[in-house]
Write a structure and sequence with these properties.
Elements lengths: L4 E10 L2 E9 L5 E7 L5 E11 L2 E8 L5 E10 L6 E7 L7 E8 L3 E11 L2 E11 L5 E12 L5 E10 L8 H5 L10 H8 L32 E6 L2 E6 L3 E3 L4 E13 L1 E7 H4 L3 E8 L14 E8 L6 E9 L7 E8 L3 E17 L5 E16 L5 E8 L5 E5 L5 E6 L2 E8 L3 E14 L3 H4 L1
Parallel strand pairs: 3-12, 10-19, 17-24
Antiparallel strand pairs: 1-2, 1-5, 3-4, 4-9, 5-8, 6-9, 7-8, 10-11, 11-16, 12-14, 12-15, 13-14, 17-18, 18-21, 19-20, 22-23, 23-28, 24-27, 25-28, 26-27
C-alpha cells in the first residue's frame, strides 16, 4: 500500500471558480530514482507518472501524510508536450495538513508523462568491509558492502538507486521540514541545483554480492542475482549507481556488495606506546587505496572495517579485530587499529637508577645533574608467525642521550621527546634488549646543546 496518496482532480472553469468534475486515483509510478546521501539525512526522489489531463485547468493533489517528505521541495514538470502544458501554481489549502495542490493548465487532453521530484528524510546507507588475511598475513582479500535502510514512511518499488559519498550543506533537517503544518520557502534550492547536474548514466563496472530475497508484504521477492554497482566522480561528490532497480519497502533494509578485491598486500605492525595505549600492545594492519594494492579505482567511504584470519587448515575463520574508518581517497594509505593484541606483549623493566655530574651555583646549591636510568625491554610473541613490533619510549624532555647496542633491534630518535625501537620477534619466542638513557636536569641541559 502506497503511503503518499497522490490524487488527480480534473477540474473545469466557470468564471473565476473551479468546479470539480472528476476525481481519479493517480496511476502507480512508471519509474522512480533515489539519490541517497550518506553524510546527511537527505534523499532526492524523482518519479515518472502518466497523468490523464483534460483540456483546460486540472488540479493535482498530493498528500504526504505519515511520510518524511519535505513539502517545500515539491516540483512537478511535464516530460513531454512542454509547450502545451503549464504548471500555474502549487498551493497548500487552508485547514488541511500535509496536502498540496498543483494547478495545471493543458491545451491537450489525454495521458501525459510528468516528473515529480522532492526531498525526503528517512532513507540512509552506510558502508562496511570484511577483510580476510592470508595464512602468512602478507595479503588480504577485501569485500565492501553497502546497507540501505528505509524509514521514510514510503514504499519504493523498482527504484533506480544511487548513493552519494560526500558532504552536503543542509540548512534545515528534512525531517523537520516534513512536519511543517504550513510549508513555506525552501532552503534546499541550492542542493536541488547541485543535484540537477548529476548524470543518469555512469560507466565504471564493479561486481556485487547476492542479496537474500525474502517474500515481502508487497507480494514480490527481492532480486537475488548479483548486482553491478557503477561509480563515477562528480566534483566533490562520488556517485555509486546500483545496477537495475531495487525494491526498498518502508521499515526494511537490504545489503549489497559494492566491490571485491583479492591479494591486497598488507603490512602488520604491533605498537607499544604507553603515552597512547597504556601498557597494551596494539595491532595495526596497513595498506593503500591504489593500483599497486589492487584497489584505487574509487574512494573508500567511511564505515565499519572488520578483519578475519584463518583459524585452522580447514579454512575456518577467526575474528582478528575491527575499527571504524574515515573516507579514504584514491592513492591514500590507511592504517587500521585492530585493538589490543593478546599474543604479543611488551614489558619494560627499570633495572637501575642513579644520578651523577652535579653542578652548583654560587650559593653552592645544586643547579643541575644527570639522571641515568637503565631499562630492559622484554618482548614475548606466542604466535606461530613472526611479528614486527614498534616500541616507543617517552622521555618527557628533549634533553637526553641514549646508550644502546643491539644488532637485532633498530633504534632511532623518533622526535625531541621520544625514542623508538623496532624489531622482529620470531614465532613463539621471547626477546629482551637493554638501553641506558641519560636525562639532563637543570644547568646540565647545556651539555646536550654542546
Amino acid at each position: 500500500m502506497k503511503r503518499n496518496c497522490l490524487l488527480l482532480i480534473i477540474a473545469a472553469t466557470c468564471g473565476n471558480a473551479y468546479a470539480k468534475i472528476d476525481l481519479v486515483t493517480l496511476p502507480d509510478r512508471d519509474s522512480s530514482q533515489l539519490t541517497i546521501y550518506n553524510s546527511a539525512d537527505l534523499t532526492l526522489v524523482r518519479e515518472q507518472r502518466n497523468l490523464t489531463l483534460k483540456a483546460g485547468y486540472n488540479w493535482l493533489q498530493l498528500s504526504w501524510s505519515n511520510t518524511l517528505i519535505d513539502p517545500t521541495s515539491l516540483s512537478l514538470t511535464p516530460s513531454e508536450q512542454i509547450d502545451k502544458i503549464e504548471i500555474r501554481q502549487l498551493v497548500y489549502p487552508a485547514r488541511t495538513r500535509q496536502v498540496g495542490q498543483w494547478l495545471i493548465h493543458s491545451e491537450i487532453a489525454g495521458k501525459v508523462s510528468f516528473e515529480i521530484t522532492y526531498f525526503t528524510s528517512g532513507l540512509s546507507w552506510r558502508a562496511f568491509y570484511m577483510g580476510t588475511l592470508s595464512e602468512d598475513e602478507r595479503t588480504m582479500s577485501l569485500k565492501g558492502h553497502v546497507r540501505i535502510a528505509n524509514r521514510s514512511g514510503e514504499d519504493y518499488e523498482e527504484a533506480q538507486t544511487r548513493l552519494i559519498v560526500g558532504k552536503v550543506n543542509v540548512l534545515d533537517k528534512i525531517a523537520e521540514l516534513a512536519k511543517r503544518e504550513h510549508p513555506h520557502g525552501s532552503p534546499l534550492a541550492k542542493i536541488a541545483k547541485d543535484l540537477s547536474g548529476i548524470p543518469h548514466n555512469v560507466s565504471f563496472a564493479f561486481p556485487a554480492a547476492e542479496v537474500p530475497g525474502p517474500t515481502l508484504a508487497l507480494g514480490k521477492v527481492l532480486d537475488v542475482r548479483r548486482k553491478e554497482i557503477r561509480k563515477e566522480s562528480l566534483s566533490e561528490y562520488f556517485l555509486y549507481t546500483i545496477e537495475g532497480t531495487e525494491t526498498i519497502p518502508n521499515q526494511w533494509a537490504k545489503r549489497l556488495q559494492s566491490f571485491e578485491a583479492e591479494a591486497i598486500e598488507v603490512e602488520s605492525l604491533y605498537k607499544y606506546d604507553e603515552s597512547r595505549y597504556g601498557n597494551r600492545t596494539i595491532r595495526f594492519v596497513t595498506f593503500a587505496n591504489d593500483e599497486d594494492h589492487n584497489l584505487g579505482e574509487t574512494p573508500i567511504p567511511n564505515g565499519q572495517f572488520r578483519i578475519y584470519g584463518y583459524a585452522d587448515a580447514a579454512g575456518h575463520l577467526t575474528y582478528v579485530g575491527g575499527t571504524s574508518i574515515k573516507y579514504i581517497p584514491v592513492d591514500e594509505e590507511v592504517e587500521l587499529n585492530l585493538g589490543p593484541a593478546r599474543l604479543v606483549t611488551v614489558e619494560p623493566k627499570l633495572m637501575a637508577f642513579e644520578t651523577d655530574n652535579y653542578t652548583f651555583d654560587r650559593n653552592l646549591d645544586v643547579s643541575g645533574w644527570d639522571a641515568i636510568r637503565s631499562w630492559q625491554i622484554e618482548v614475548t610473541n606466542t604466535r606461530d608467525l613472526p611479528v614486527e613490533i614498534e616500541i616507543t619510549r617517552g622521555l618527557g624532555t628533549p634533553y637526553w642521550t641514549m646508550d644502546f647496542r643491539d644488532q637485532d633491534v633498530t633504534y632511532e630518535k623518533h622526535d625531541a621527546t621520544n625514542a623508538r625501537f623496532t624489531l622482529v620477534a620470531g614465532p613463539r619466542t621471547k626477546k629482551a634488549f637493554a638501553y641506558t638513557v641519560t636525562i639532563y636536569r637543570g644547568r646540565r641541559q647545556d651539555a646536550v646543546n654542546q
